[in-house]
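sanity check both lines:
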Amino acid sequence: MKPELAQQLLKATVAQYNRIAVEFDSARSTASDFTALTRFVKPGDLVVDVACGNGRLAAAFADQEVRMIGTDGSKELITIARERYATEIEKGWLGFTVADIMELPFDHAQFDVCFFMAALHHVPSHAMRIAVMRDLKKIIKPGARVIGSVWNLRATLFTQRYDLETQLVTPRSGHDVGDVFIPWKSGGAAEERYCHAFTIEELQDLFTEVGFVIEELYPVDRMFEKVEFADSLNIFFVLRG
């Protein structure tokens, strides 16, 4: 994929999430599915949630005695997060900021833990994915972890719901193999969001190229329990820097 198209797609995705922010938030307002992730933090940790969306991961960590900052490219979703978690922000352990995924405003070796949930599939082109993952590796402390997931768009649920078989075989002109477009209905108009349908092998190669040690990489259900590939919703990963 040419860099110009990749930049265009990334900007379009941010604009789309700004437009659908209220509906998106309504569909993803609880954090019960994230409770399994508390095993990765300990009291006193400084945690970053990159591509935090409406900030719902914070609810899972409210009693974990951590300090946490969430960042997202969508200013509308960050506004929702700040309003929902105003009390926690006032207490001083939580904050949210708008930031470009390609230009994270953090220092090297700043964080004890980084979460990157359901976002990498929205990053177009191999070159951009490498750049994003290298940035995540830079902002965590040596030996710290990046915990994340991508939608498993090759699983049965997605291929049947969105009729992806044709897109997976024949991508749009100028796009890479595995690039697909997933609709979101907003006000009667379809928002087609760019996504990349990863294989586990592709993720393994990507993370290895960046220099991560892969501790966990497997398909999971909504509650992050390991399941068969065809039956999963996400591919889950734990990477050590």
Observations:
- The CA atoms of residues 111 and 173 lie 40 Å apart.
- The longest helix spans residues 3-19.
- The beta strands are 46-50, 67-72, 94-98, 111-117, 140-151, 179-186, 189-196, 213-220, 234-240.
